[in-house]
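Reviewer 2 asked us to include a model.

Predict the structure of this chain.
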Amino acid sequence: MASAEIAAEHERILREIESTDTNCIGPTLRSVYDGQEHGLFMEKLEGRIRNHDREIEKMCNHHFQGFVDSITELLKVRGEAQKLKGQVTETNQKLQNDGKELLTSMNELRQCRVQQRNIATTIDKLTHCLPVLEMYSKLQEQMRAKRYYPALRTLEQLEESCLPQAGSYRFCTIMAENIPRLRTHIRDVSMSDLKDFLESIRKHSDKIGETAMKQAQVQIARDNAVTSQQRSASGRRIRKEGYGSTEVDRTGNNPFSEQDSGILDVDDEQEEEVPGAHDLVDFSPVYRCLHIYTVLGARDTFENYYRKQRRKQARLVLQPHSNMHETLEGYRRYFNQIVGFFVVEDHILHTTQGLVNRAYVEELWELALSKTIAALRTHSSYCTDPDLVLDLKNLIVLFADTLQGYGFPVNQLFDMLLEMRDQYGEILLKKWSQSFRQILDQDNYSPIPVVSPEEYQRITGQFPFQDPELDKMPFPKKLPFSEFVPKVYSQLKEFIYACLKYSEDLHLSSTEIDDMIRKSTNLLLTRTLSHCLQYAIKKKNVGLAELVQIIINTTHLEQSCHYLEEFISNITNVPPDTINATKLYGTSTFKDARHAAEEEIYTNLNQKIDQFLQLADYDWTAAQGGGQASDYLSDLIAFLCSTFAVFTHLPGNAIEHATLPGKVAQTACMSACKHLSTSLLQLLLEADVRQVSMGALQQFNVDVKECERFARAGPVPGFQGDTLLLAFIDLRQLLDLFTQWDWSTYLADYGRPTCKYLRVNPHTALALLEKMKDTSRKNNMFAQFRKNERDKQKLIDTVVKQLRNLIASNQA
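Predicted model (structure tokens):
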């Protein structure tokens, strides 16, 4: 069994040796040598070799004849081969000789083909490189021409399209390296242009604003012209007297000339066509910079920078000069700068997408509005010239209308103008106060003489005066009032015109304008004119004739008040009977002035009487009185007669609620007589007068009779009976009591309505009697032993005692 297995193994090894490559036979032979049957394998191997030798021998025997035949054929062919070889060699030599020229041509052709291929390759490469070079040349040209936005687009095209197609050449690498630097340069240059633009419009925003305001003024003028034509077509008639032009003069030359700064030159002489404000400004630097930063992906940075710089400029623009209030030009420059600033911002808002938005512009406008109003309130408060305030108002209205045309809300400006109206009214009141005082100071307080109808028409044209009786009188004649009446009336109308001028273009209704004018006029009447009249009445050295003329003048001015009412209604087109319409207080103003003048007349008369009474020089111890009135009293009576003669000019039937004819003269006369009577009684009872003799009383009685004679003569017509004598009734009864020595009647009838000495006060009688008692004692100290003197002294003592008892009983 084992031998069979060994035999099978040896058979397998032999088959492997036969079929396996000799390079790999080592492991097979190794397995033979590793076994125990080496000899047996060698025997089998020898046997296999003998078998193969026998097969080889059989095969050789089978093919030997064919081999011999092949050798024979091969020997025959060798000769022929030698011939053929010689022919081939010869042919080859001939071919080699003939192919040299062809080879040379072929080499030349190959070289040409190589050159042709190189040329084609070069052309292809140049085809891709030339656009790069052309684009770069175009870029350089655009950079030199400062066309930065197209240059940036060219740069973008060069980087994204041309350079990738050109390949990796050195010049392409250099160009690619230069691209960031070129972008940075373009960004910096465009920002520099923007800074120049911002600086330029900051410097010349007043010119931009001036042009915008001119344009708005032209448009307003056109609108007003169209409105006027419509009103004329409808047949509506508006009465305007003495209106001044409300347009503000805004002439001026072009103060600058800039190149490439964003500001274009304008020919100011072209008045027919005012260019739009946007025509003055070249906004291309802003647009270029915006587009460049957008392409560079830094739009937010640009927007923030632009808004930040414009906010700074806004604060500078809104800062007024310290002396802005001194002239209108200061205000105009201030407004022009603000308008110019917002015209630029409005144009930027509408021509760019998102550089500025509505919220940003409204924020700036709110800031500008608050600061502008604060500045105007501060600086306008320094103004004392009403013409400047009026011009400023017109300028503010134009400023507001201009900005309103660009869509900015301006209601606060008009509210501020209504606030300034009160300030304007106060300034007008101060100015008119000076005018009124000047008129009153320069007036001669005499009736106006008129020598011709033209002069009469001129005066009645200034003041509404109508007097049919005076019209019938021949020239020359006199008007009853003095010069200050037409002058004051004209000043009142001028004041109304001044108030009307301020109310124009404030978008107020006719009723509001009418109410404003009436309230301002009432202030002028009740405060300014009233104070001026009081000043004229109360000032020193004013004569009675002047006071009388003031009464006449105020009466005529009072008559003219309803004409002023009609005048206001005509210029405001508001009927005077409108509900809640404010009424003028002129009537009460002139009445108060007239009453003050009357009181001043009474006061002056009493002061004159006191001055005459200071000249009184009575001899209170005289034994016997004189037969004539004292000199001072004669002079006083003469003065009163001449004074009351002036009162015949006083009016009495002027208007409703006016004084009765002669009432002022009567009151003045009665007041003077009462004051004279009271002063004479006080003179008699003065503490300095310690003694009064009967002779002195007789002289005093003569003076009182002279006063009574004056009263009885009727220095002023209109008194009924002896009414004027009642002013001296107290003195008359007192003097009659003492001169007639009728004490028994006085004491018996005291307190009865029918008493003869009803007006004699017991205190007054006692005081005078005490003075007479002292005189009697002093003059008769050595004659007291005479019986008559003793009886008289006893009688005086008895009367004194009875008077004291009478006084004591009345007090109890």
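Residues 38-144 form the longest helix (107 residues). The longest strand covers residues 449-450. We have added this to the supplementary material.
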